[in-house]
Predict the 3D structure of the following.
Amino acid sequence: MTSHLKDHYDVIIAGAGPAGSSAAIQLAQHSLSVLLIEQKRFPRPKLCGEFISPECFSHFERLGVSEPMIRSNPATLRSTVFYSSRGHRVSVPSSWFGGGLALGLSRATMDNNLFVRAQAVGVDVLEEAVVTDVIEEQNRIQGVRVKTSEEDRDYEARLTIDATGRPRILTRRLQPNHRSRKPPFVAFKTHLSGALPEENVCEIYSYPGGYGGLNTIENGLSNLCFIVSARDVRRFNSDADTVMNETVMRNRRAACALSSARRHSEWLSVSLESFGFSDPAPKPGLIAIGDAASFIDPFTGSGMLMALESGELAAAVAVDHFKNHSSIVEMRNDYLKEYHRKFSSRFRVSSLLRRTAFNPRLAEMTIIACSLNTWLRNQLARATRSRVDGTQSTVSMS
């Protein structure tokens, strides 16, 4: 039923993933009216590495979801180990990213915890709804057009936020003639039983044309998520099992850890056009967060953190400008400035590391070098995040 929803909100957010739901929670906590629109019905699976770095827990505490996350029985991950194709390895302790443990938790569970919290703090939600267009007047975005099984309806807002992830559904509505190049990569994800990653470890595998990760999540299952070239996907007739066997399993450690694994869920897949910045503020009245604003390389393990950070940043900027009655153009400019200040340096580092991740020889050399030099691997790991000052909350689980 949509009859209880208003026609006008302070903020409309499309996409109820971690970026969208976290922004909605914080905006509602500042007494702003928020409509959160989601294409699926929760809980739902999502393609993701399902690695939650330690820094995320301080965000969970501020959002009021730390207890539900712990009650969801996530796996604890004390380190991330990178394996070259030939078996060389380098370990990065999770404690380097805030003093605590990383977590392995499915996106279906994590996102649902945030979604339930958003409703609890007064966010209006609309599930199984498709945003068909943005409402643009006088060169600014003033809301969205939405289609549900019941009706087509317009919703207006002072600010609209694109949190639709890599599809960037709202932003692309402003580029009707945009033709993107054929995506060079494809990502796959499934849940497995019987996989054998090292206990309390997230394992990252390098192989020709891509890389992948395996870690335990709740209920004793493991999440496998990997990236391969679109060329290889076509070569193996888009059969995910064959793609995995012919690419990921060329890594010695992956072949061992996955030798007895059985799929517990269907494969999910998505084409990847590019990494790095997209457009965090495409037009006055519309800003983007999470993967809709920029897509950081999954090997950094900081994608979930960036979703929460960008949601928090968007909410802070919006609250400040609404409070001070600033213009929508000023809000957009401030968001752009703060976004680039916060995230630009880590994207530069990730861009350099990407060349290594997709080249087995370079990956081999880098892993060997980092295994011999603790300072080097510490600096590279931290460079993919904001500065950790030791004051963040940490999760401790037995």
About this structure: The CA atoms of residues 3 and 356 lie 53 Å apart.
